[in-house]
Amino acid sequence: xxxxxxxxxxxxxLVGASLAAALRHSPLKVALLEAGHWSPPxxxxxxxxxxxxxxxxxxxxxxxHSLGVWEKVSQLATPIKHIQVSDQGHFGKARLHCEEIQLPxxxxxxxxxxxxxxxxxxxxxGKVGIQAKITVTDFKQHPDFIELQCxxxxxxxxxxxxxxxxxxxxxxxxxxxxGLLTTLQDYGQTAIIANVSLEKSHQYTAFERFTAKGxxxxxxxxxxxxxxxxxxxxxxxxxxxxxxxxxxxxxLQREFGWKLGAFTQVGARHAYPxxxxxxxxxxxxxxxxxxxxxxxxxxIAGQGFNLGLRDVASLSDILLTAHQAGQDLGxxxxxxxxxxxxxxxxxxxxxxxxSLVQIFSNNLPGLRHLRGLGLLxxxxxxxxxxxFMRQMTGLxxxxxxxxxGVVEK
Length: 409
Ligand SMILES: Cc1cc2nc3c(=O)[nH]c(=O)nc-3n(C[C@H](O)[C@H](O)[C@H](O)COP(=O)(O)OP(=O)(O)OC[C@H]3O[C@@H](n4cnc5c(N)ncnc54)[C@H](O)[C@@H]3O)c2cc1C
What we know:
CATH topology: FAD/NAD(P)-binding domain
Bound molecules: flavin-adenine dinucleotide
């Protein structure tokens, strides 16, 4: 038999790489298999380490700190101290402030590319065997291990593992092969992202504005810059991408108004079609699906990677505890222990994000009134606000070692 790993992680995107970082100093024999390139620090990266900008919640900052990643990016991250949620053209506004839950920030803003590079740098230390340009095409489940069939630059290879962690992204082929029940829902919306500069300071505020065509967000960056996530119907994407910078800025100004003065500059624009992917049962024989492969969310609430990182924190906890107890890492008992912790979190966050999209992308007059009242209630009812903020910051999640700051050396 080919050499046997304890854990093989399929996919070196942000979630798979985070799990590898969590296990890098453990006694486990771990491999990370990535279909794309992997050449630290500045060469070609996996395609998902792109220019999208991530709002990392407070729990993610703590997990990344425990992983030894945060110290590499803290100077590049911008804190979110306030969040303002509004409904375009209607009454009601909710304002959330970090002081209200005694935190230095509600979250931090960082480019996915910068986080990817920091993860790669982190993985230069430790014992994870990283293999790039290798695609897992199929697998066979044996009683004691899984046999992975792979293609590495055209040549067939076999890799065996006690347990396989599938982090191959939203279009996961392997999730399909496992036969896990998956629901897919196209939102009929596309997110256009770009960095923009403004006349006035954002004061470390994230603006979330709901419009009839889809939500619109501005996340604070250094100086007077912001990261824009503008959700539009698919049939208007091409036209928006082809506008001159001047025309695009004018369209943006009409949508957002003059609260922060004039929009003065816009960087490169990128488009992402949006959909919801849910896998209610994320474990199968000797395998677990995590990250975007298990749940792909609308970016409206900026929760996709945050949730994926909590998958990582819970799973690494379970695997390390099982190893210490001498348990088989791929056993039903071990994988069910992970599912019991993480599936409720996944269901809650996916449900909450989807409800926001459905409620705020709907222009029925009664509903408009209700959501105005909802925003007012959120703004004025302290217990409701506290609950919502704890949910958004990820602090009511399972208290994994990484979330609680227990560092594996
Ligand atoms: C516009 C936008 C804004 C967002 N904003 C936020 C935000 O503010 N906050 C937040 O928390 N989240 C946000 N997200 C979500 C976040 O980007 C994703 O949740 C995260 O990047 C998912 O990472 P992943 O590792 O699960 O998947 P991916 O990044 O898709 O990585 C999968 C990896 O698996 C590899 N792979 C695929 N198949 C195979 C195979 N067969 N064999 C080997 N390797 C394979 C791929 O090459 C890839 O590198 C946003 C998303 C979008 C689109």
